[in-house]
Description:
Elements: H1 17-29, H2 39-52, H3 55-62
Amino acid sequence: MIVDNEDVTVLDYSFSKKELFLLAKFLRNKQEELPLGLEGFYKALEDSIYNSLSLEEVKRFYS
C-alpha cells in the first residue's frame, strides 16, 4: 500500500469501552504479528487501557 501523506487522518471513529478492551486484548495476544507502522496505534490503545484501570485491574485484564 502506498500512502502519500501519513499525517492525514482518514478514519475518525469513537471506540466504546468494550471495543477498546477487546481490541487491546486481541492485539496483546498478537503483538508479535503486529505489522510495522501500527506501533503508535497499539501504544495509544494500551495507554487508554492503562489510564482507565488500576494497576491490579490491568494485571487481571491481561492475564
